[in-house]
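If I may wish for something, please sit down with the protein I am sending here and say whether tokens and residues agree:
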Amino acid sequence: MSKDIHEYLAEFDDIPGTRIFTAARARQGYHLNQFCMSLMKPENRERWKAGEASYLADWPLTDEQQQALRARDYNRLLDLGGNIYFLSKVFSTDGLSFVQAVSTMTGMLVEDYQAMMLAGGRSPNGVRSKKDKR
């Protein structure tokens, strides 16, 4: 008997440090990602920079999403339905490069993260399952 799609997709949550952008996550983060995309317009970036709280008030975001945005907690934003390519509008507005922002998500210095990626990325060896710790 084959697994149903929800059971299959739930298996991706077992991969340490990985968040697969599924349809469920897209639904959860719809307004968050729309907010991020709004920052493509210069006038919206200026409104955001002038007053984050007032700009966020225009969006139907959860309290958790708003808190994570204000804290620039990109890992939490991914957990709350954010898509990294949409979130890039936030860190770009803050003047961060993709490498700078993503290095904050790993806890690594920018230079160390960049060197790791130039060397081929993270090693495939190590913990591959949260539940099995293997």
About this structure: Residues 3 and 9 are 10 Å apart (CA to CA). Residues 5-94 form a domain with the Protocatechuate 4,5-dioxygenase; Chain A fold (CATH 1.10.700.10).
